[in-house]
Design goal:
mainly beta
C-alpha cells in the first residue's frame, strides 16, 4: 500500500469531520418529542392529599407527532394529555394525577409510558415521578370496587395519627343511591382517632358499570376533602355462594396473621373454576385451586409486616371462568390486638 501524502491526510481528516457533522445534524433532524424533565422529584408529599405533576414537552421534529397511548405503572395513576397530535415546534404536557390515598409511607417511583407515532415510526418515552410519602391521615380502603346484585354495604375508616386529630364534619356519596354516614368515632389501641363510616349501595342502584366516589369532609384545611374512588358494577343476581362471604383475621401483637380458606360453590352444583384473583392491597396474597368436588378453594393470607397501623380493610376480587364469567368481591378485614 502506498503512503498517504500530508495533503491527502489533511483532506481525509476534513472528510471525517464533515461526515460526523452530517450524522449529528441527521440525528438532530430526527428528534421529536423532547421532555424538559422526564425524571422528576416531587419531594415529600402527604398521603390523602391530591397530587398533580406536569411533564412538559415540545415536538422538535420536522413532522407532526401523534400520541397513541399513555399508560401508568399502577391503578393509582391518572395520566392525561390535552390533545393527541402536535405539530413541529408545538408544546404540550402530560398531566399526571397520583391517588395518594392508596400509597404506603416511604419512597415511591411512579412510571408513565407514552407511545407515539412520528412519520412511519412508532416510538416510546418513559416518564418517572419520585416522591416520599408521609402518612398522617389514612383512609381504608383507599379505593373500592363493588360487584353487586342487591343492596350491599361497606365500612370505610379514617385514622388520624397526629396528636391533634381532624374532625370529620360530613360524608357524601356521589349518587343518590349511595348512602353514607359516620357510624362512630373511637380510638385504636395506640390512641389514634378513628372514624368508621358506613357506606351503602341501595337496592335501586342502576344496572351497569359506574364510576363514583365517596367524599369525606373535615375541619382540617390540609385534609378538607378526602375522596375515595368507587367502581360499582350492578348485574343480575349471581349464582355462586361464597363461604365465608368476608374474611376477618385477628392476631396479637408480634404474632403472624392466620390464613383463611374461602369456598366457592355454584348453586346448581356445576364445577367452579377460578381464572384469576386481584387484590387491592400489597399486604394480601391469594392462592387458589379446584375442589373439593365441584367447588373452588381460595386461600387468603395477609403479611403483618406490610400493614401500616394495627388494622387493614381491603378487597379481594375473584374472577370466575366457569360455570360462567363472573367477578366476586370478598371484603378482607385484619386487626392486631
Amino acid at each position: 500500500m502506498g503512503r498517504i501524502s500530508t495533503t491527502g491526510r489533511i483532506a481525509w481528516m476534513r472528510w471525517v469531520v464533515a461526515a460526523s457533522c452530517l450524522v449529528v445534524a441527521a440525528n438532530h433532524a430526527r428528534a421529536d418529542l423532547v421532555f424538559a424533565e422526564p425524571h422528576a422529584d416531587a419531594g415529600t408529599v402527604h398521603s390523602s392529599v391530591p397530587m398533580m405533576h406536569h411533564f412538559t414537552f415540545v415536538n422538535q421534529g420536522p413532522e407532526p407527532v401523534e400520541i397513541l397511548r399513555v399508560l401508568g405503572s399502577c391503578g393509582c395513576l391518572k395520566p392525561n394529555v390535552a390533545q393527541t397530535t402536535y405539530k413541529p415546534g408545538e408544546q404540550g404536557k402530560v398531566d399526571l394525577e397520583v391517588h395518594t390515598l392508596s400509597q404506603a409511607p416511604g419512597p415511591h417511583t411512579w412510571t408513565v409510558r407514552l407511545s407515539y407515532q412520528c412519520g412511519n415510526e412508532l416510538r416510546e418515552a418513559e416518564l418517572q415521578l419520585r416522591a416520599r410519602v408521609v402518612t398522617e391521615v389514612m383512609v381504608q380502603p383507599a379505593a373500592i370496587v363493588f360487584h353487586v346484585d342487591k343492596a350491599t354495604g361497606r365500612d370505610v375508616t379514617v385514622t388520624d395519627f397526629r396528636k391533634k386529630p381532624l374532625t370529620v364534619t360530613d360524608v357524601r356519596g356521589s349518587s343518590s343511591s349511595l348512602k353514607a354516614q359516620v357510624a362512630e368515632r373511637g380510638h385504636d389501641r395506640k390512641g389514634n382517632t378513628v372514624y368508621r363510616i358506613k357506606l351503602e349501595v341501595t337496592e335501586d342502584y342502576p344496572d351497569g358499570r359506574h364510576e363514583e366516589y365517596l367524599d369525606i369532609y373535615s375541619d382540617d384545611p390540609a385534609y378538607g376533602n378526602l375522596r375515595v374512588p368507587l367502581t360499582i358494577v350492578k348485574r343480575a343476581q349471581q349464582h355462586l355462594t361464597v363461604t365465608p362471604d368476608h374474611v376477618t383475621l385477628e392476631a396479637h401483637e408480634g404474632q403472624p396473621l392466620p390464613a383463611r380458606i374461602v369456598l366457592l360453590r355454584d348453586n346448581s352444583d356445576q364445577k367452579v373454576l377460578i381464572e384469576h384473583v386481584l387484590v387491592d392491597d400489597p399486604a394480601i396474597t391469594c392462592t387458589w385451586a379446584q375442589g373439593p368436588n365441584n367447588m373452588a378453594t381460595l386461600k387468603v393470607r395477609v403479611d403483618r409486616a406490610q400493614i401500616h397501623g394495627d388494622s387493614l380493610r381491603s378487597n379481594v376480587q375473584v374472577l370466575i371462568r366457569k360455570p360462567a364469567p363472573e367477578t366476586l368481591t370478598i371484603p378482607v378485614v385484619c386487626t392486631i390486638d
